Amino acid sequence: MRGRDEDTGEFFSPSRSQNRREALEVLALAEKLVALSEPQLAKLPVPEALLPHIRETKRITAHVAHKRQLAFLAKQMRREDEQALERLRDAMDEKGDAARREVAAMHRVEQWRERLLDDGDAALAELLDEYPHADRQRMRQLVRNTLDERKRNKPPHAFRELYRELRAAILGAAEGDADADENSDSEDGSPERD
């Protein structure tokens, strides 16, 4: 029984439905943790007390026993303080965002590579407009070598090197933009005094 405060009419504790929702959220987090590899787990702020339970849950493969062990892991996680679980959720969300950004960058580089191979100098001019620090001569040479490799059915060495060069140019520009944003945020905008 939850009980109510006679003065305000508010409940003393959360409802059973609220407790169940929170328990199911922790169970979902436990499932995500069990799905991670050891190196991925090592990068997360997992409380030391939970690591043996996570490993044990991974080890058990029989369906019912795995489900029971997963429920036990979630119970152990609920005993941890809420801040520890929140840090864990934040770290896992950050990894998801970082992975999505990495995949998007990879697709952008691949699109530029295909454009350079299909459109030649016109695409190279657009690339240099967008990323002026890219090396025109090196890019042109790699495009020629890649096309030559394709004609001769050779291994794609230049194709891969073109990808690496484009990735360095595109991601280098993105990092430079992020640094510029940080520097402009740190300045207060007031004029300098002599």
TrEMBL record:
<comment type="similarity">
    <text>Belongs to the DarP family.</text>
</comment>
<feature type="compositionally biased region" description="Acidic residues">
    <location>
        <begin position="176"/>
        <end position="194"/>
    </location>
</feature>
<keyword id="KW-0690">Ribosome biogenesis</keyword>
<dbReference type="GO" id="GO:0019843">
    <property type="term" value="F:rRNA binding"/>
</dbReference>
<dbReference type="InterPro" id="IPR023153">
    <property type="entry name" value="DarP_sf"/>
</dbReference>
<dbReference type="GO" id="GO:0043022">
    <property type="term" value="F:ribosome binding"/>
</dbReference>
<dbReference type="InterPro" id="IPR006839">
    <property type="entry name" value="DarP"/>
</dbReference>
<comment type="function">
    <text>Member of a network of 50S ribosomal subunit biogenesis factors which assembles along the 30S-50S interface, preventing incorrect 23S rRNA structures from forming. Promotes peptidyl transferase center (PTC) maturation.</text>
</comment>
<keyword id="KW-0694">RNA-binding</keyword>
<protein>
    <recommendedName>
        <fullName>Dual-action ribosomal maturation protein DarP</fullName>
    </recommendedName>
</protein>
<feature type="region of interest" description="Disordered">
    <location>
        <begin position="1"/>
        <end position="20"/>
    </location>
</feature>
<feature type="region of interest" description="Disordered">
    <location>
        <begin position="173"/>
        <end position="194"/>
    </location>
</feature>
<keyword id="KW-0699">rRNA-binding</keyword>
<keyword id="KW-0963">Cytoplasm</keyword>
<dbReference type="Pfam" id="PF04751">
    <property type="entry name" value="DarP"/>
</dbReference>
<dbReference type="GO" id="GO:0005829">
    <property type="term" value="C:cytosol"/>
</dbReference>
<dbReference type="GO" id="GO:1902626">
    <property type="term" value="P:assembly of large subunit precursor of preribosome"/>
</dbReference>
